[in-house]
């Protein structure tokens, strides 16, 4: 079975500082990894994904994520946080191969960027 | 243009009633999903259809029944509503049900059962 862990319920960061939202995963085989963001009273928006290749993936709104196979992690990062980045962030994983339809989400991490 | 739309946005109803939520996507995707997000923001997959074929059918009460009349639409019908059904229900779609295809989510339907 595949699973995702987001160890922090909440991350607070000052505006202008770098931010990291942590994610670790468990899946058989090579994973497909995703980050989504949810603003209040909105649906989830896709930020970025890892398929294969370069371990550093760049996405929307200046976000990037680093894939680390040995640590089974896919942490979300941004060099300089904005107040408008405050939202709920979800990491998700899907396994490879035929029949791997299900995308498994973590429980979410609330990011608060303090002015 | 709205990529994934859901109606209604809010639904307030009493226990025991039957209600439906509709979802439409104009992205040309062949896979659609229903998720339930509870009060703690935890997301749970309920159903998924690929080319109108049911491919994910998670452990949900059989009071919940999805229907996909075509690839662009996926509706959710709920019979005999219970208090515990109160949640936000999200529809999503993707190009392909497997692999690296990202999902696009609708704005959600907030269901309140009183």
Explain how this protein is built.
- The complex is a heterodimer of chains A (115) and B (114).
- Chain A is built from no helices and twelve strands.
- Chain A is an all-beta fold.
- In chain A, the strands form three sheets. In chain A, strands 2, 5, 6, 10, 11 and 12 form a six-stranded mixed β-sheet that branches. In chain A, strands 3-9-8-7 form a four-stranded antiparallel β-sheet, with no helix packed on it. Chain A has a two-stranded antiparallel sheet with strand order 1-4.
- Chain A is globular and about 45 Å long.
- Chain B contains no helices and eleven strands.
- In chain B, the strands form two sheets. In chain B, strands 2, 4, 5, 6, 9, 10 and 11 form a seven-stranded mixed β-sheet that branches. In chain B, strands 1-3-8-7 form a four-stranded antiparallel β-sheet, with no helix packed on it.
- In chain B, strand 4 and strand 5 form a beta hairpin.
- The relative contact order of chain B is 0.34.
- At the A-B interface, strand 5, strand 6 and strand 10 of A face strand 5 and strand 10 of B.
Largest sheet of chain B: 7 strands, mixed
Average of the residue pLDDT scores of chain A = 93
Largest sheet of chain A: 6 strands, mixed
Poorly predicted runs of chain B: none
- How many DSSP-defined strands of chain B? 11
Given the structure, what is the number of helices of chain A?
Answer: 0
> By helix and strand content of chain A, what is the structural category?
mainly beta
Describe the oligomeric state of these chains in a short phrase.
heterodimer
Counting DSSP H or I runs of 4 or more residues, the number of helices of chain B is 0
Radius of gyration based on Cα positions of chain A: 14 Å
Apparent shape of chain B: globular
